[in-house]
Amino acid sequence: MLPYSFEDMKKIERSVLGDTVPLELFRTIRLIGMSQGLPLGGKGTTVTIGRKIGASLPAASVEELLHLFVDLKIGIPRIIHQDEQRINIAVDDCFCKGLPLLEDEKMICDLEGAIMEGALCKIMNRKISVKEIKCNATGHEYCEYEVRL
Fold first, then answer.
1. What is the Cα 77 distance to its own chain's centre?
2. Over the stretch 76-123, which tens digit does the pLDDT of each residue have?
3. Torsional sign, CA 83, 88, 90, 94
4. Is-above-0.85 flag for pTM?
5. Cα–Cα–Cα angle for 135, 138, 140, nearest 5°?
6. Contact between residue 145 and residue 125 where contact means Cβ atoms under 8 Å apart
7. What count of other Cβ atoms lies within 10 Å of the Cβ of residue 105?
8. Is 92 helix (H, G, I), strand (E, B) or coil?
9. Is residue 50 within 8 Å of 114, Cβ to Cβ?
10. Fewer CB atoms near the end CB (10 Å): N or C, the chain?
């Protein structure tokens, strides 16, 4: 296994093309390559990858994680409900915003939820469960995640 860290990923030396790739490439990798190319729509893979990415993020609090989502252009998160058992986080401007609507109510932002889960497990030092309950791709105004504490 390659011993890369999140800090290593920030070391970019592309003098011509710079430090970004088009959103359509990311969408293609996720929604065509992984979702259509892997068994079960790649869900197990994206959840495993997302949790690992989340655990590697340099966030020590929920607020830092929310700021990282914006900095990494994952989306613009905001807490819309919080109590002792759960937190609901809406993510505006998610990567799926603007895609053609799916007819079957299938949520497609499981990677983002898994990133959130991995980071929150590390931050809170316990098992946390995150589930996408709304998605732009199914016609909702924003993507929403229910965090079970």
1. 11
2. 999 999 999 999 999 999 999 999 999 877 899 999 999 999 999 999
3. positive
4. yes
5. 60
6. no
7. 11
8. strand
9. yes
10. N
SS3 at position 105: coil
54-63 per-position pLDDT tens digit: 999 999 999 9
| Whole-number Å distance between alpha carbons of 64 and 123 | 10
CA-nearest of 53, 47, 61 to 120 is 61
Reported as half-sphere exposure (CB side, CA atoms, 13 A), residue 137 has a value of 16
Residue 42 backbone dihedrals phi, psi, to 5 degrees: 75, 10
| CA–CA dist 119, 52 (Å, integer) | 8
Question: Which tokens hold the place of 45?
Answer: 């893979």
Nearest-10 crossing angle of helices 43-56, 110-124: 40
Longest dimension (CA), the chain: 49
